[in-house]
Amino acid sequence: PDDGHSAMPWRTIREMKHYFHEAPRSEWVQIFAGLVRSLMFPRALIFCDAGDTEIFGLFRQMQSMGLPVGLNAEDTGAAAASRDFPGVAERDSRQKAVQAFIAGKTQFLLTRSDPTLCQVVLPKVSCVFHFGIPCQEEAIYGTRLQTLDAQVARDATSILLLDVTPSVLGAAGRQQASRGEAKRNDSHGQQPARYECHLACS
Fold it and tell me: Distance between CA atoms of 53 and 102, rounded to whole angstroms?
């Protein structure tokens, strides 16, 4: 159904700041925490399409660091059996996590590339973090950015974290990103764009 949400204009996405950084997956949360504290992003989305164990582990790690984060992810695997992840529940809790983020009750939202979420404009989001891109699905990069409000998107920042191993984007995609020319064709037929520069995270 038509919810009134139109695709983000290519020109607007092009005007955003795009960065990438290569680091081991085990360091991604630490890098994220350092960036949001030093750059003071008021609100940010974190996209991650990893398996249950990893995404719930990331959520716990963020919580342990005192980050005000909600989780929009369905418990579908082994993680559901253990029930030792505080703050995680079923579908209604996922909806509550999104609603809490929209209402400004949480500063960050860790989420999978949920098609429903990607059709909703989330207000006052100034940064989108990408904890990797699924192999052979580079187009999801542009789709994720559709959640930004076009009125603030020009001043927004998109940060892609890449694993140092070539298996995340594939060797060819990783080489492109290293040259600052990684393609991101989204589902709305937008042109490829380059990542503007490597993000220094020392």
Answer: 26
Tokens 């092009």 identify what position? 14
Instruction: Judge contact between 45 and 129, C-beta under 8 A.
Output: yes
Alpha carbon distance 183, 176 (integer Å): 8
User: In which region does residue 139 sit, left (phi positive, over 0), alpha (psi from -120 to 50) or beta (all else)?
Assistant: alpha
Task: Give the strand order in the sheet containing 17-22.
Answer: 69-72, 108-111, 44-47, 127-131, 157-162, 17-22, 197-198
Task: Give the span between the Cα atoms of 121 and 114, in whole angstroms.
Answer: 13
Could you tell me the sign of the dihedral formed by the alpha carbons of 3, 185, 159, 11, in that order? negative
Quick one: which of 96, 52, 100 has its CA closest to 73?
52
Q: How far apart are CA 72 and CA 74, in angstroms?
A: 7
- Return d(Cα 20, Cα 188) in angstroms, integer: 22
Per-residue pLDDT tens digits for 28-84: 999 999 998 898 888 899 999 999 899 999 999 999 999 999 999 876 554 444 455
What Cα–Cα distance (Å) separates residue 92 from each residue in 72, 73, 139? 10, 11, 29
